[in-house]
Amino acid sequence: MSDDTRDDDRAAAADEAAAANPAPTAGSRRPQAPVRRLSSRRRFIRSAFLIGGVLGLAMLGYVPVAGAHRSRLRPPGALEEADFLSSCIKCGQCVQVCPVAAIRLDDIDSGFGIGVPSIDARAQACDFSCDAVQCILACPTGSLTYRKPASLATRPGMPLARAPLLKAKAKDAEPTLNLPERIGVARLSRPDSCLAVLGKGFRGQARGAGFRGRLRYVERDRWRPVAVRDHPYERDLCNLCVSECPIGEAITMQVTVAADGSRQHRPQVLEQCVGCGVCEMICPVDPAAIVIDARQPWAI
Amino acid sequence: MSASERLRVMFGAAPLKPERITPAAQQVHKLKRMTKADFEALKQHARDHQLVNHKWRNRRWAVLILVNLLFTFSFWLDIQMLEGSLTASRFVGFHLIDLNSALQVMLAHRHVIVNLFIGTATVFVLWVALGGRSFCSWVCPYHLVAEWFEWLHLRLVAKKLVSDHEFHRGARSVFWLAFALLAVLSGYTVFETISPTGILSRALIYGPSLALGWVLLLLLFEVLYSRRAWCRYVCPIGMTYGMVGAVSPLRVEYRLEHCFHEGDCRKVCLVPHVLDVVIKGRAADLKTPIGPDCTRCGLCVDVCPSGALVFDIKGLNRLL
Question: pTM score, two decimals?
Answer without folding.
Answer: 0.86
